[in-house]
Amino acid sequence: MSRAKVWPLIYLVVFIGTLVMNYLTSMNVGRVANQDQALIQPAGYAFSIWSLIYLFIIIWIIRLLLDKQQSYDLTQGENLTFWPILNFILNGLWIYVFTQNWKLTSVIVIIALLLTLVIIYRKISQHHNHPFDRSVFSIYFAWVTVATIVNIFTYVKSLDVSHVIGLSELTWTWVMLVVATALCVYIAFKYHDFLYPLVFVWAFTAIYFENQHSLLLMILIGCIVVQLITALTILIRKFKK
């Protein structure tokens, strides 16, 4: 077996393990999340994006297995090597610890998961790859960014803490919505990525439908508009090129 195929094969094996873990525990994720539902938690339908992410990852791995040069460029030339493996392991681990109700541990794991995505995303973005390669991780990275924020809020909610540094959950929620949108805009323009903000639109729309606070609803609408304008601006620039 060529060296170019070794890493993708390992990716496939580890990712199948992640899928198995997800299948065995997926029903419990919603149950645990609803126990300490934070204001920032999206409506249940939003989590269906995981199916799209997993499908794209499978296609991405298969492409690496079938295309020797593409496999070498990504896994060797860009030094992805073990990073996707670590990411898939952390993905499966997060599902396990979250469904075990280990809230603090789940926060630590999902932050580690997010960091691996930052590294993978930056490595892929630094080179001229097939657009699909980055698209996979644009969607994945954006969703885990939102999921990390939600996970942290869920953990704090489980502690029955009404105020943190003198601020209520409502205040922290709208502050984080604005901060997350600012981060979204920064990353989207820095990497010329229109998909990244579209995932935020998906997540924030789901938060909107799950919420009843008038202030949050107005802030969410404002954030969604900014995210849509960001995605549209980048898309127009791409077509002009």
How do the SSEs run, as a string of H and E? HHHHHHEEHHH
Helix content: over 70%
Number of E-type strands = 2
N/C terminus separation: 40 Å
What are the low-pLDDT stretches, counting only 5+ consecutive residues below 50?
A: none
Q: What's the number of structural domains?
A: 1
Order of neighbouring strands in the sheet with most strands: 1-2
How would you classify the helix and strand content by structural class? Answer: mainly alpha
Largest sheet: 2 strands, antiparallel
Keywords: Membrane, Transmembrane, Transmembrane helix
Transmembrane segments: 7-25, 45-66, 78-98, 104-124, 136-156, 171-189, 194-209, 215-236
Protein name: Tryptophan-rich sensory protein
Topology, pairings included?
Blueprint: H1 3-35, H2 49-66, H3 68-77, H4 83-99, H5 103-125, H6 131-158, E1 163-164, E2 167-168, H7 169-190, H8 195-210, H9 214-240
Antiparallel strand pairs: 1-2
Helix pairs in contact: 1-2, 1-3, 1-4, 2-3, 2-6, 4-5, 5-6, 6-7, 6-8, 7-8, 7-9, 8-9
What does this protein structure show overall?
This is Tryptophan-rich sensory protein. Keywords: Membrane, Transmembrane, Transmembrane helix. InterPro entries: TspO/MBR-related_sf (IPR038330). There is one protein chain. The chain has 241 residues and is an all-alpha fold. It has one domain (3-240). Helices cover 80% and strands 2% of the residues. The chain has helices at 3-35, 49-66, 68-77, 83-99, 103-125, 131-158, 169-190, 195-210, 214-240; strands spanning 163-164, 167-168. Strands 1-2 form a two-stranded antiparallel sheet. The longest helix is centred in the N-terminal third of the chain and has 33 residues, at 3-35. It is globular and about 55 Å long. The mean pLDDT is 88.
